[in-house]
Design goal:
CATH class: Alpha Beta
Largest sheet: 7 strands, mixed
CATH superfamily: Vaccinia Virus protein VP39
CATH architecture: 3-Layer(aba) Sandwich
Shape: globular
Number of strands: 14
Radius of gyration: 18 Å
Helix content: 25-40%
CATH topology: Rossmann fold
Number of helices: 11
């Protein structure tokens, strides 16, 4: 679940009615869930990785099936929203985000320039919100033992169709309660994925829980400055401030889908309270003239002057 659905991409706190309309022909919430690997199949694929079963089938109420309470009731709305918009989103954005391996963020900046992920050879890796698997299928070629997790039936179906020559396990689940045993992975990562669409104070401790000692959490989220400079009336990012930096972390759209954007201090406190050590905060800066399928900016080179996203690199001591 890499970026927005009927909402704007990247966990942004605003919604795009046009994308929702373009998704009218997409599968609707309540369609049968495509077949997914069971916990046993994942264990076999990863060489004995202990993975307890998550919710089976296609429950009508995912929050209830996951044992989640009212604070994360948006699990159902987020899943439904992604299911409605998946096909339109992939048609619009896959040519950019699937163009090459290891591309970060709204401007698809190569990891070779940012140095965030590192060597994954032989590691047990979880992509937390894999969407159609653009990242996962490229990392599967790098000899890591990888699992792609997503909340959306339609996104997982797209990932399955695009999987390529090297298969990897796909699991349906929510970042709020991961269906994996404690200490399962060497690396958990997402690119505007699960940590943009789940309450960070719930999802970050879950990501930390499934990490092994010295395991790493690497993820991109929307910069609070992009939120502050977003002009709702013109549906674009500008060089002026339009929103309070200290505004609410959660933004809920008309369909109930909820995304989250934290300030820098709140992210630091959230990561530290989950027992993680912050190794780096990278603010990806696109090259001059670099296009994006996600942003409409005025001036066009807005992201050259102000950070539009944050790339956090952490580890579990």
């Amino acid at each position: 679940m890499r970026h927005g659905t009927a909402t704007r991409p990247g966990g942004w706190p605003w919604h795009d009615a046009a994308m929702a309309n373009r998704a009218a022909a997409d599968r609707r919430a309540g369609d049968a869930c495509p077949p997914l690997l069971s916990g046993r199949s994942v264990r076999d694929a990863l060489g004995g990785l202990p993975l307890p079963e998550g919710p089976a089938g296609n429950p009508s109420t995912w929050a209830q099936a996951l044992g989640l309470g009212e604070p994360v009731a948006s699990v159902n709305a987020n899943r439904n929203s992604w299911n409605r918009a998946s096909a339109a989103y992939q048609q619009r954005c896959d040519p950019q985000i699937g163009a090459a391996a290891r591309l970060w963020g709204n401007y698809s900046i190569p990891d070779s320039e940012l140095g965030a992920l590192g060597d994954v050879t032989g590691l047990r890796v979880l992509e937390l919100g894999c969407g159609a698997g653009q990242w996962s299928r490229s990392l599967a070629r790098e000899a890591c033992r990888l699992v792609g997790l997503d909340l959306s039936d339609a996104q997982l179906d797209a990932a399955r169709r695009a999987m390529g020559a090297i298969p990897y396990p796909l699991v349906q689940g929510a970042a709020e309660q991961l269906p994996f045993a404690t200490g399962s992975f060497d690396l958990v990562f997402c690119d505007h994925g699960g940590l943009s669409w789940a309450p960070p104070d719930v999802a970050v401790p879950e990501a930390a829980r499934v990490l092994r000692q010295r395991g790493r959490l690497v993820f991109t989220v929307t910069s609070p400055w992009l939120r502050a400079c977003y002009d709702d009336s013109s549906d674009r990012v500008t060089a002026s401030l339009h929103h309070d930096y200290f505004g609410p972390a959660a933004a809920t759209g008309e369909d109930g889908a909820t995304s989250y954007t934290l300030g820098y201090g709140d992210w630091i406190r959230t990561l530290r309270s989950a027992g993680l050590v912050i190794d780096d905060l990278i603010e990806p800066r696109p090259d001059p003239g670099k296009p994006s399928t996600y942003l409409t900016c005025e001036p066009a080179d807005w992201a050259r002057h102000w950070p539009c996203e944050n790339l956090w690199v952490c580890h579990k001591p």
